[in-house]
Amino acid sequence: MYRCSDRKLLGLFVLSLTTVIGAEEAVTTPLIAINAGTNVRSIEFSPDGSTLLAGLNDYTAKIWEADSGTLLQTFSGHTWIVYDAQFFPDGSKVVTVSADRSAKIWDVGTGSVIRTLTGHGEEVLACAVSPDGQMIATGGGTTDHSVIVWNATTGSQIDRFVSNNGWIRDLEFTPDGSRLIVISSGQQVFVRQTGPWQTLISFTASNCLRGSVSPDGLFLLVGSLAPHTVARIWDLATGTEVQALTGHSSYVSGTAYSPNGSYALTGAGNGNEVRLWDLSSGSTICTYSGGSPSDISAVDVSPDGNRIVSAEFGGQIRVWQTPFTVPVELSAFEME
After folding, report:
1. Where are the alpha helices (DSSP H) in 169-299?
2. What is the pTM of this model?
3. CA–CA separation, 279 vs 277, rounded Å?
4. Cis, peptide link before residue 303, omega less than 30° from 0
């Protein structure tokens, strides 16, 4: 069942293209559930929304069919935990980063390694692929506080940036590829221009964890470390907080935007709760919970906005229906 507000969700997508499902209670039944068999560190939909990619504790990354949960591909070759995995924009390749200090580029069709990238002195915790697929950014952990930007074709280093505020928690390119957002463990966010490479602005985002850039590239939605329970939205031009999303009872471990930026998705650690937010009001539209005691590790929204996915440290991956249906051809537009 759905715990949905009776607000006019039609205002999110207009023109009677929005189908509102549900009534008063939290969603407890997903469309599909996948048991990855190990801790899930990252999760994302493919660019066409047909598959799911996860970085896993068993030293692999895997791809499942999003509609059926069928395992389609396993990427084996790392020698330690795979902390993050990201699709290339055309969906033909993925990049993974691992505690074995390397990043790898893989062919989705064959599952074979195209290239291994080495240069970090410690575990690699985060990665991002530029919107044109020409660059890969990787972020180091523990004592290696560096961000390395690589040429995705040749494997050569384009830029190296060292954070003076701890290891790298997350990396995000803006949708136009002009900036790279670096989130550090020292609660600092760096906005890096991608050409010529320089820091445009840095600001303190208290208790920040993973983040997501809005589709228009203007804002950053960031989760929070325990014992904090608030997700916050920051203006990337000024470094000022513009919105706080309150309602979770535990730390916020995962974040994502809808394709048109009208709503946001957050996942809480303890409590296994995912919330879908109306950003125009800052209120919760729906909550989702699989009833598991395991912490949420990551969340994502499908490219058409019709589904969300949540992943857990306990190994469960769940795909859920959103309470509205957005036609694919309109999902990229901002509608009032």
Report:
1. none
2. 0.89
3. 6
4. no
